[in-house]
Amino acid sequence: MGHKHTKAELLSYALDEVFDHGLSQLTFGRLARRLGVSDRIVVYYFPTKDVLITEVLLGVGARLQQVLGEAFVEPAADHRGLARAAWPVLARAEVDPLFAVFFEANGLAAARRTPYREVLGQLVEAWISWLGPLLDGPPARQRAEAAATIALVDGLLLLRQLAGPDAAEQAAASLGLTGSSSPMQSSRLVRDATDPAAVTLGLT
Q1: Contact (Cβ atoms closer than 8 angstroms) between residue 56 and residue 18
Q2: Distance between CA atoms of 112 and 102, rounded to whole angstroms?
Q3: Phi, psi dihedral angles at 135 (to 5 degrees)
Q4: What are phi and psi of 114, to 5 degrees?
Q5: Where are the beta strands (DSSP E) in the chain?
Q6: Low-confidence ranges of the chain (pLDDT < 70)
Q7: pLDDT of residue 180
Q8: Nearest 5°: phi and psi at 99?
Q9: What whole-number distance in Å separates Cα of residue 161 and Cα of residue 167?
């Protein structure tokens, strides 16, 4: 067709646009302007907005998988052990923009927006299946512990996005994922979980 850019190049530019301005701002027009081409070139490779968003989400998922592959390496007995080893790798300023886009996509998926809900559901299911073999126990336990790992790590990473790195590190320490949490602190957390005041504060 004699196009100046390939589909792979357009997708790379689309990912850059998303990391700069967010998923909600991605349009054919913005992407075309970023490349200096007409909207028709973008539409040629991505016929609909849903197609474009799906390709971008898969691209984000691939980049996330690279980061997760560096974080989740050694087997562990349970989700806390797996999360403890992964946290220092995931809680880095250089990957914050990647997780910011991921959480934006999660919000749109939670609002039942297409194609976010479908793609994010597939990604999470793939990560659970991938993490399972790193954990001890029969398949059912591995799956449950893998899901718990994702829930724990995602919660801390979301806190890092919203409240800042210090708040996330303090929470990680309270959860026993970093060396600054003592056994006494951990046992106090368990006791507090049965305290009605703790329930009122949303700590359980």
Answers
A1: yes
A2: 15
A3: -115, 150
A4: -90, 140
A5: none
A6: 1-3, 180-204
A7: 53
A8: -70, -25
A9: 10
